[in-house]
Design brief:
- The structure holds two protein chains of two kinds.
- By secondary structure, chain A is mainly α.
- In chain A, about 50% of the residues lie in helices and about 5% in strands.
- Among the domains of chain A are: about 220 residues, no CATH class; about 140 residues, no CATH class.
- In chain A, a hairpin with a 5-residue loop joins strand 3 and strand 4.
- In chain A, helix 3 runs parallel beside helix 5, helix 6 crosses helix 7 and helix 22 packs across helix 23.
- By secondary structure, chain B is of the alpha/beta class.
- Chain B has a single domain, classed as 3-Layer(aba) Sandwich (Alkaline Phosphatase, subunit A), CATH 3.40.720.10.
- Chain B has an eight-stranded mixed sheet, sandwiched between helices. Chain B has a two-stranded antiparallel sheet with strand order 2-3.
- In chain B, helix 9 runs parallel beside helix 10.
- Chain B is globular and about 70 Å long.
- The chains are: A mainly alpha, B alpha/beta.
- At the A-B interface, helix 19, helix 20, helix 23, helix 24 and helix 25 of A face helix 6 and helix 7 of B.
């Protein structure tokens, strides 16, 4: 068969052995990496992201003859944007500002992504992403907060996390540690390999650890061990992530029984060897390097001197290969798909860690366009996020009468459970409406918000959602019967409501505070009758109305 | 469709509360233990057939097999403790477990358990908790407890209760290591950490019973409106379902109260939190709760392994033997399977801190009671305990054995959220027939 041959440009680091042979390129194709993405006829580069999304989504809806849900109410879109961009609901004061006038969504998005909450929320979200569901993974929140505050591009963050960024200039402020991502996983190289491949390239290759991937024909054990080899040189020295020049090239036992040599190989099949010393010289070089490291360790308390860095860094090599022209699309597509999943409730490729040729995207051109846009704009995540929430598809109603159409049509908006961080912040915001006054100057409001955030507290009974997430019994038991929670819930809201002249105004204010919208006529009737029956103990009546609002699914979900 | 079965007290309130547990079955009202339903022949038949229960004793952190079920005295890996003769001729256990040694002829011990996991958290433990499946790729499958809770579910009772005598790892995200996933939230554990009863099981003092109900009715109305056009969303449905179960769980608060037990029984279990939780577990099991997990924490002895085991193993010995004896005396052991398990065993090598590290290659698990052939010592390790010598048992085989012992076909198929047919254990898994009665 005609194997396409692709020449990878020679690398500045001359003594890397660049091996490019056709089977690997075939494997690259199998992994869903377009050989030449630009050859596809995509919408032009300069179109707004939101418009491009709607173009491709609408086309498929028409093809499927599905009429999408109508736009969501403005108050719903406002709440959705607050939760998605800054991780909390709007305060009652903020929410009310948008009532009674057409919503300028672009302006709201712009103001939210420029507010401090944007960095905080994304730091939380990416911290969860980078944990990849390892409960004992170190939190990288401090680093991520700095990174998002500086709108650091995703490729630069990738290098930071691999510990291969240029070192900070002397005198520059100390940066929070990003390379803990690798350092704290060194003791489990298999998990490190799995997490790097899934998070950054959308491909969980765990099964190739023991056997050929059952669905992706080209994905053999060589890939798993090839990716793992990029971390084979890394070691911890006095709490730092360093790399050796020489290591013994490991063998792995293939499923077929043969023993095979591990060599560095990226998921596309691109190889990167660091050393080609003959066996005997290598053994001696390893021994010498080990001795040197041990000596440096002994003297470290006094000398504070690190062992020399290797001439060629394997992790740096990984970053170079992953971000080079031939491979970077994989890197871009993975983060596009993960962010799409976050805002649209379902990936363009599902599952998000199974992005390979035999599991294609629902909207291939859209994914290609978005990945190309991200690359063109230097991996600017703020631009991507701003674009993703700017489409009509994003702002549809999350309700659907009757049997809903397939999720990958994106005909209606998702109803997503809040994360623990979103729930906690929203609870605090709703619970103390007295803190925020309509006439607070912007800087006063920012300071107050920062105070509220600091007092955020933790609510361990609210779980981090995941696929097939189910709300268990612990959460409603706590929220229904825990005296401390019941005492706090509404404690600052009730005095505010009590100052209002009538039940109608109280109901409206409580609904704005908790659900970020005015009360419906049915709710006025329901709550009005309830409060009327408790006229003799009005505080308790209000407390229970507030409890019902906080415990309603409308508060618990981003809808 | 919802044919009401007679309630013991006839109260509409009760039938409403208990409906919460029933899911699709509809509103049947059972008594406290679900046993009053025996008055109904159809249901009695069903109970008789399925009324099996499981207690999982989980040694969190990893109990050392050398200091318990598989001692190697006199070997370089053996440590300082002696081995003592047990009630099974030829089988010796650590001297730290005299009580279990005298009744081990009623249990089965597997000394050749082997698993790739050597971590406390993360994907490999989740894998172990659902039987180390190699056949489902990245699709996560429910844990043993959630599967058993569902299969052995009893009307009117929670499916799955989980006790922890330590707070670790009961904090933050993946706290339970037990996930129901697509089975649904009603199979998730009720978690009880560091105490005897779940949080929020009592009516709060600040509310009257009527206000508590009226408040929930108010919430229900808001929820109904929200759910109306989101019927296909399982997560939204689970939120409502869990709120509906709150009153039902409040109704069984008395089961968690061990002050109702005779002093003699309480003494037998001892005063450790683990022991007291075990006594609550027995009360729950007696009432018909199908799955209870008891997690005993702090076994992770990387340093001072022998001191830690000298202090902890005797408590395990006491609690486990008390639990088994109590179940036996009440005639419950024939329907109750008691399992000991952990994330891992401990290394044969004794490290520089006199500790033992994480070890998956060969360690011991035990099975007692329902469906188990008593007195079987299955499999063995080599002289130093560094490898399986005979009859290696994998997690999948172990789980298949557990399912079989309580009368569940271990090859039973169910469907994942993405429509894949999945068996309870991987295709072609064979249970360990040698330990099955």
């Amino acid at each position: 068969m005609g194997n396409p041959r692709v020449t990878i440009p020679s690398h500045p680091l001359g003594n890397f052995i660049m091996k490019t042979c056709s089977p690997w390129i075939i494997a690259g194709v199998l992994l869903g990496l377009p050989l030449d993405a630009t050859a596809q006829e995509l919408l032009p580069l300069d179109r707004p992201i939101g418009e491009v999304i709607d173009h491709y989504i609408d086309a498929k809806l028409q093809q499927a003859k599905v009429k999408p849900a109508p736009p969501a109410a403005d108050a719903t879109v406002v709440r959705r944007l607050y939760l998605d961009l800054i991780g909390r609901i709007p305060t009652a004061v903020e929410a009310r500002q948008f009532a009674g006038q057409p919503l300028d969504r672009g302006k709201l998005i712009e103001s939210l992504v420029s507010s401090p909450g944007f960095a905080r929320h994304n730091a939380n979200e990416f911290d969860v992403l980078l944990r990849n569901r390892n409960t004992d993974a170190t939190s990288l929140q401090p680093y991520l907060l700095e990174a998002f505050q500086a709108n650091r591009p995703w490729d630069a963050m990738f290098r930071d996390l691999l510990g291969v960024s240029e070192p900070a200039k002397p005198g520059a402020p100390a940066k929070a540690r990003a390379d803990d991502f690798v350092l704290k996983r060194l003791k489990d190289g298999d998990a490190l390999t799995r997490d790097v491949s899934s998070i950054f390239f959308g491909l969980n290759i765990t099964c190739a650890q023991c056997h050929r991937h059952p669905e992706i024909k080209g994905l053999t054990q060589d890939y798993f061990f090839g990716m793992k080899a990029f971390f084979g040189y890394s070691y911890e020295f006095q709490g730092r992530l360093l790399e050796r020049q020489y290591v013994k090239v490991a063998d792995f036992k293939a499923k077929t029984g043969e023993t095979r040599k591990v060599s560095m190989m990226f998921l596309s099949g691109t190889r990167g060897e660091v050393s080609d010393l003959p066996e005997r010289e290598l053994v001696a070089a390893i021994a010498e390097e080990t001795k040197l490291i041990q000596e440096k360790a002994k003297e470290y308390a006094k000398a504070k001197e690190l062992p020399p860095a290797p001439k060629h860094s394997a992790r740096k090599r990984l970053a170079e290969i992953a971000l080079d022209e031939a491979n970077r699309e994989m890197f871009a597509r993975s983060i596009v798909n993960r962010l799409w999943f976050r805002f649209y409730g379902y990936g363009l490729v599902m599952r998000v860690d199974q992005m390979h040729a035999e599991n294609g995207p629902s909207h291939p051109e859209l994914l290609n366009w978005l990945a190309r846009d991200l690359i063109t704009h230097k991996y600017d995540l703020k631009r991507l996020i701003t674009g993703l929430v700017g489409s009509r598809a994003y702002a549809r109603s999350s309700e659907w009468r009757g049997t809903p159409p397939a999720k990958d049509l994106f005909a209606f908006a998702p109803t997503r459970p809040l994360t623990p961080a979103q729930w906690g912040m929203s609870y605090h915001i709703a619970n103390q409406p007295d803190v925020f006054k309509p006439d607070d100057p912007a800087e006063v409001r920012l300071k107050k918000l920062a105070d509220v955030e600091r007092g955020g507290g933790t609510f361990p009974f609210v779980e981090q959602p995941f696929d097939d997430f189910q709300v268990g019994i612990d959460e409603p038991l706590k929220l229904s019967n825990d005296e401390n929670i019941l005492k706090a819930m509404g404690s600052k809201l009730i005095p505010v409501l009590r100052k209002l002249p009538d039940a109608r105004r109280q109901i409206d204010e409580a609904t704005w505070a908790v659900l970020s919208r005015p009360a419906t006529p049915e709710e006025h009737k329901l709550f009005g009758e309830y409060l009327d029956q408790r006229k003799d103990r009005p505080d308790e009546g209000l407390r229970q109305v507030i409890w019902a609002l906080f415990n309603s699914p409308e508060f618990r979900f981003n809808h | 469709m919802n044919k009401q079965l007679p309630s013991t007290c006839g109260s509409q309130e009760h039938s409403l509360n208990r409906r919460a547990f029933l899911g699709g079955v509809g509103g049947f009202a059972g008594g406290l233990a679900g046993l009053d339903a025996l008055g109904n022949p159809l249901l009695a038949n069903q109970l008789e057939k399925r009324h099996k229960r499981v207690i999982l004793l989980w040694m969190a952190g990893g109990l050392s097999q050398f200091e318990s079920w598989d001692p190697k005295p006199g070997r370089k890996t053996g440590g300082p403790f002696r081995a003592i003769q047990t009630s099974v001729p030829g089988y010796r256990m650590s001297e730290l477990m005299p009580m279990m040694a005298s009744r081990i002829h009623k249990s089965a011990v597997i000394r050749s358990f082997s698993s790739p996991n050597t971590g406390h958290t993360g994907a490999s433990v989740f894998a172990l908790m659902s039987g180390d499946r190699q056949d489902t790729g990245t699709l996560r499958t429910p844990s043993l407890g959630c599967l058993l809770g569902r299969e052995l579910s009893q009307p009117g009772l929670p499916d799955h209760v989980s006790f922890w005598n330590a707070t670790w790892p009961f904090s933050g995200g993946d706290k339970q290591l037990d996930f129901a996933l697509f089975l649904g939230a009603r199979h998730e554990a009720i978690n009880i950490a560091g105490k005897l009863a779940p949080d929020g099981i009592q009516l709060p003092a600040s509310l009257t019973d009527n206000d508590h109900r009226a408040r929930e009715a108010l919430r229900e109305q808001l929820a109904a409106r929200f759910q109306e056009n989101r019927s296909g969303n399982g997560t939204v449905a689970s939120h409502g379902g869990s709120y509906q179960r709150v009153r039902g769980i409040m109704d069984i608060a008395g089961l968690f109260d061990i002050s109702r037990e005779p002093l003699k029984i309480r003494e037998r279990y001892g005063h450790s939190l683990f022991g007291q939780q075990a006594l609550v577990a027995r009360r729950l099991i007696e009432a018909g709760v199908p799955f209870v997990r008891l997690t005993d924490g702090w076994w992770d002895s990387h340093g001072e392994n022998f001191e830690i085991h000298a202090s902890k193993v005797p408590t395990l010995d006491r609690v486990m033997s008390a639990l088994l004896e109590d179940l036996e005396q009440r005639g419950l052991l024939q329907d109750t399977l008691v399992v000991t398990f952990a994330e891992m065993g401990r290394t044969p090598q004794i490290n520089a801190q006199r500790g033992r590290d994480h070890w998956g290659a060969c360690w011991s698990v035990t099975l007692t009671g329902c469906g188990i052939k008593p007195g079987v010592i299955h499999g063995s390790t080599n002289a130093d305990g560094t490898a399986v010598a005979t009859d290696r048992v994998t997690a999948a085989q172990f789980f298949a054995t557990i399912f079989q012992a309580v009368g569940i076909d271990h090859q039973k198929e169910y469907t994942s959220a993405d429509g894949r047919p999945i068996r309870l254990t991987p295709y072609n898994t064979e249970p360990v027939r040698a330990v099955l009665a």
